[in-house]
Amino acid sequence: MVAVASSIERAAAGIKSSAVLDFLRKPKQLLIDGKWVPAKSGKTFQTFNPANEEVLALAAEGDRADVDEAVKAARRALEGKWSSIGPHQRAGYLLRMADLIEKHVDELATLESLNNGMAISLANRMTNGAASTFRYYAGWATKIYGETNPSDPSMFNYTLREPVGVCGQIIPWNGPISMFSWKIAPALACGNVSVIKPAEQTPLTALRLGELLLEAGIPEGVVNIITGYGETAGAAIAEHPGIDKVAFTGSTEVGKLILRASTGNLKRVSLELGGKSPNIVFADANMDECLPTSLSGFTTLSGQVCCAGTRVFVQRDFHDEFVERLTTRAAQAKAGDPLDPQTTIGPLVSKEQFERVRGYLDIGKKEGAEPKLGGDVRKGKGYFVDPTIFTHVRNDMRIAREEIFGPVASVIPFKDENDAVLQGNDTTYGLAAAVWTNDVRRAHQVARALKAGTVWVNCYNNIDPISPFGGYKQSGIGRELGKQSIDLYTQVKSVYLKL
Ligand code: ADP
């Protein structure tokens, strides 16, 4: 314990906030049935600050036995008290949660940045975004309607929209607070209960959000939080016969495992998976907007974003000039201390991720791509990688086909609109895409032709809870956010009444 305590002080060196330090020093437990409990096995695992590689905390290592308890508690809540709580009251919980997130935004953002490495400015934006998501779904709780149907005169037929039931929600490390809100807010708005598992790399903010949910008055068992590893706790959620729906955000590889595991009891499944998004730049675009946004498109969160614009397609005649100008800007954007408000790029989340990105930088060079900028990881403490821009990339190279999850872009020339769309769509993924042009006809045509769940025109990475998000092809199944999440978290019952 002494060793961990001193490591916390080193891991969080420079942090003044007593709220953050108090939280870090407390034991981290699982939230089951409204109570904080250790894992049944008594095991814990280390979680790190990726900026200095120090142990930030020990988290409870939940596994199958803890998931079992959580599912039982969730089922009791679903069939008990929670089912008698009306939509206005559910809205009230979500609104209180939104207020609490805003009240604690600095503390939550600091914890997020310490555990994930994301720049504090981004952590602040994402935490405020989570409050907006809770508030948005609070509005939906009272607006989930069934229908009366034009049935035979001897019948009265209507539909009820009911909760799906116990939801297993597995979230990734790249936007822990944000992903928590995308999963929990719509699930509760629709009257479901949840067993949620944050990623093993970033368990901390979900635990703090669990405390805030209790403070908001959420009844026991409605939200249960199991920290632990994917292969154990995550797999137990995916397989569990007591779970009615599984919602997953993460890699395509694990998404396929989840889909397979869910067949045992035919769970409803929604998956938000990887991407290799095309960012298509026509020569007529406004470069003052396009250049900085294309740069942040692949460097935000150090490129560890499923919708990162990592394949930058540029109109051929304009390619060389664009590469020069993008490189000049990117050269100034070095990864730095994530807690510095000026920093825009922090370290990668983990050693594993750092090695993965290093591996892809080597693969790119071996494939014949040329790093116009970067091309290697940084030495020293912390998992820092500065932006890399590869040129001489063909769309069939591995660096252009596989998700790297680092601040690495491949710039590829295209001839015309048709060529841009063909190359942009030539990928197994389809999460997002962007097109930059001042020609309104072309903007709409290309937006329609791109096979992606989100298309940005003259912007990038804009996400609003009012609008659906999700993938074509191997980027996922289903859409989250907007009214689409209401469809994901409800099921329809048809009632016939003989008159
Ligand atoms: P990434 O590649 O971004 O780390 P993963 O898909 O590995 O994403 O992880 C996303 C989430 O899925 C994490 O919470 C992780 O613990 C969980 N996970 C990993 N493997 C499995 C699995 N076999 N079954 C269920 N969940 C898993």
Strand order of the largest sheet: 14-15-16-13-12-17-18
Major β-sheet annotation:
7 strands, mixed
Q: Give the N-to-C terminal Cα separation.
A: 70 Å
Give the proportion of residues in helices. 40-55%
**Dominant shape:** globular
CATH topology of the largest domain: Aldehyde Dehydrogenase, Chain A, domain 1
* CATH class descriptor name of the largest domain: Alpha Beta
Portion in beta strands: 15-25%
- How many E-type strands? 20
Class from helix and strand fractions: alpha/beta
Question: What does this entry look like structurally?
Answer:
- The protein is α/β, with parallel strands linked by helices.
- It is globular, with a radius of gyration of 23 Å.
- The protein has helices spanning 2-11, 18-25, 64-79, 87-103, 105-116, 120-141, 176-189, 204-215, 230-239, 252-261, 287-299, 319-332, 351-367, 398-401, 417-425, 440-449, 484-488; strands at 30-32, 35-37, 44-49, 54-60, 148-149, 155-163, 166-170, 193-197, 223-225, 245-249, 268-272, 278-281, 311-315, 370-373, 388-391, 408-414, 432-436, 454-457, 476-477, 490-498.
- It is built from 17 helices and 20 strands.
- A 7-stranded mixed β-sheet has the order 14-15-16-13-12-17-18, with helices on both faces. The protein has a 6-stranded mixed β-sheet with strand order 9-8-7-10-11-19, sandwiched between helices.
- The chain has 2 domains: 2-273 and 476-494, 3-Layer(aba) Sandwich (Aldehyde Dehydrogenase, Chain A, domain 1), CATH 3.40.605.10; 278-466, 3-Layer(aba) Sandwich (Aldehyde Dehydrogenase, Chain A, domain 2).
- Bound molecules: adenosine-5'-diphosphate (ADP).
- Residues 170-173, 197, 199-200, 229-231, 234-235, 238, 250-251, 254, 257-258 line the site of adenosine-5'-diphosphate.
